[in-house]
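Dear support,

I submitted the protein below through the web form. The confirmation email said the job was done, but the results page showed an empty box. After a refresh the structure appeared. I'm attaching both so you can tell me whether what I see now is the final result or a partial one.
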Amino acid sequence: MTAQTIQKSKNGGRLRLWWQSVWSRFDDVPLLGWLIGALVAVGLEYAVGRPFAQLLGMRKSPALFGFLFILKEPWLIPSAIVYVAVMTILPIAALAKATASFANKTATALLRASTLLSVAVHLILLYAILYIWCDILPYRLIVVKLTLIAIVITLSLNVVNGYMGEFSCSHPGFISLGAYGASVVTILVFDDPSPWLFPLALIVGGIVAALGALLVAIPSFRTRGDYLAIISLAFTFIIKSFIENLEFVGGPRGLGGQPNWASLPVVFIVTIIAIWIINNFVRSILGKALNAVRDNEAAADAMTVNTQRTKMTAFLFSAFWAGVAGGLLAHVLAFINPASFGLQKLAEVLAMVYFGGLNSVVGSIVGAVSLNLLGEMLRPLEIWKWIVIPLMLILMMIYRPTGLVAFKEFDIVALLQPKQTTKGEQ
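What the results page shows now:
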């Protein structure tokens, strides 16, 4: 080992120790404290963000933590860093630490009263943060909606590729079936549709996608090996070609004019419901059976697990939620066409699943949020963005092949628990 390598190792060790010492100061801050700090921070940005940005030489508040300004106009790097530090990092850290004692007592009281009440309070705070943050700049609203939809898509694919241990490439087809199925209900079936029809449209989109999944599941699960990957990839191309030849939905031109019903509260509520249902599904007896099938199908079959029914149920369940996400996507964008559901969409979805981590609800959320925000932040790089992101994924596969947060259960009660008390309270 050379002297330069030793020095780099020492520097990396010092950096880790410094970060651990900084983060350890917030060991007593519960999730409620972080949400309170974030709420105050977005309120501060809403009140004085624009004039403060102009004072620093920027035209408006940075949309995504200063990255768009930094990549478009590098001379604004110091201004963007100061803005993010003053408007986001420092207020959140200071308020979270200052309210740690109050937040711990409140979290304890909420859990003692009712777990459901504690969940509701945390979700209301989270929604308020997103609402105010999006209200500052309209661009943020579309980014948040697409990120929430990506969470549903990633979770649904992780059921098959992670918990079931198969490799499916059919999700773009399921998303497109859901998008067109929901759009047909809200545009073509009813002359004067009501917003109350939207939940029905999403369910129809999910059912259409699940029916499409039967075309993949029936031949695939009668065989073993990599046949699912081959058949599911063929299914994606078949669905794309099929839609391109359906003139009543626009064919290759696409279908537009979807009503603006996928508002932030609607997308937020559907995402929370999807997380809750999928998390309960993978933690249920059927979810444990899926893990058994993934680890050793022959042994699972010998232990009286109906492997064919288990895989079929999980695959249709996964496709249903992909269809629901497709319905949301169609009504967020107000336009869809078959070209949007090809190989690029498949690559994006697979990247989010494997970047976040297999067999983990938390990993799916982390992968969807991080890659979606990263893609938007790097948008000014244009074509170079598709070089930077794949390089990051390659490095991830080399140094952390299981993903950022793999094989980790999503325990809501543990997440809402108060942290250790401060020394003064012991």
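Response: this is the final, complete result; the empty box was a page-load delay. The first strand starts at residue 255 and ends at 256.
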